[in-house]
Amino acid sequence: ESKDIDNAMHLFSSITNKSNYMYTVMFKGLITNNVAEKVLDLFDEMKIEPNQFNLSTLFNACAVLNNNRAMKIGKKLLDEMPENYRNDNITSNSAIDMLMKFGDVESAERIFRSIKTKDNITYGAMVKGYVGNEMFEKALDLFEQIPLGLTNVTYTVVFNACAKLCNDRAMKIGKELLAKMPENYRNHNITSTSAIDMLMKFGDVENAERIFRSIKTKNIITYGAMVKVVDRDTITYNAMINAFALNGMGTQAVELYREMPNNLRDHVSQICVLNACSHAGLLHEARTI
């Protein structure tokens, strides 16, 4: 809450000898509370040299803000960063993420090449950065070079890249990746939803439905991925309306019902939408249906 942030800032300002660790804690707290701009304000007042932990968190704040001030400070910090910090993966990974958010792919690639021992997060930041900059072929090129075991984040990002490309290469990579994905990742909603979205884009509705059915705890995004098919049928619409109802999203259920072509509506559609209205207290909407 803003009051708590103000209290924390006031307490922090009262400390005479602030350490790098204290700055890192404050920076992280401000980012978590969605006030990254205050991180840069605090940095401007900083009387000690930032260490690699400060820099990593400052790069994160600049990536979140992604405005002119953040770009100026982020790039200046990077230019002045001591050489020994460049071998610190956490700091370099944060710098890559920041530069990718700025759209400065070339500089991100330069840092990536300079890292002697790349880890999963390094590769993940690059692949995610390429996808964010709509360089999907480059994302797949780099993915094919990853010598390490993949994290669920990497799976998610690669599925997204394949979905966007939707060409023969993307279909081959995406389906092969899905076939060898570890079982425990299949229970990860974000990863499974990305896989569903990719298969839907490929037109492979059957496999998308198989994954959908296997997800134990479905959320609204999972249902949304399933409904992103051009030829929606009655069952798809009803499943989505029901999902909105179960998640207390009555207004969205009504909107989708009204969007549903008359020839696809059946008694189940009406029960689902009225159930949604009942849960959400939408009496007027219920009367008009």
From TrEMBL:
Pfam families: PPR. InterPro entries: PPR_At4g14850-like_plant, PPR_rpt, TPR-like_helical_dom_sf. GO terms for molecular function: RNA binding. Transmembrane segments: none annotated. PPR repeats lie at residues 233-263. Gene3D superfamilies: Tetratricopeptide repeat domain. It comes from the Eukaryota. GO terms for biological process: RNA modification. NCBIfam families: PPR. This is Pentatricopeptide repeat-containing protein. The lineage of its organism: Eukaryota, Metazoa, Spiralia, Gnathifera, Rotifera.
